[in-house]
Amino acid sequence: MGRLRGFQASHMWLRGRGCRTEAVRQVIAAWQVTVVDPDWGRNDLLRPTLRRALEAHQEQTHVRAAGRGS
């Protein structure tokens, strides 16, 4: 038996935990982003910036959803 790669290994590991094949595909295809402030320990730039960006995204998502739902 050859070595398992990418999807096969992830699928076996996640299937053993109850994940369906399509869910595994979505996880593997998803973008994963790591954001690090180069000034370690500083809490007055990165966190507020991320919060504003996520709030703006959430507002846009709700506006689009509300426009479709009416």
Q: Can you give keywords for this protein?
A:
70 residues; mainly alpha; 2 domains; 0% strand
What report would you give on this structure?
61% of the residues lie in helices and 0% in strands. The model has no long low-confidence stretch (mean pLDDT 78). It has helices spanning 6-15, 21-29, 46-69. It has three helices and no strands. It is mostly helical and 70 residues long. 0% of the residues are buried. It has two domains: 1-32, no CATH class; 36-70. The N and C termini lie far apart (55 Å).
Helix and strand arrangement:
Layout: H1 6-15, H2 21-29, H3 46-69
Overall form: flat
Instruction: Let me know the number of strands.
Output: 0
Please report the distance between the alpha carbons of the first and last residues: 55 Å
Q: Count of DSSP helices?
A: 3
Domain count: the total is 2
Mean residue pLDDT? 78
Gyration radius over CA? 19 Å
Beta-strand content estimate? under 5%
| Share of residues in helices | 55-70%
The biggest beta sheet is recorded as:
none
Structural class: mainly alpha
Low confidence ranges: none
Helix/strand order: HHH
Quick summary:
The protein is mainly alpha-helical. The chain is built from 3 helices and no strands. The longest helix is centred in the last third of the chain and has 24 residues, at 46-69.
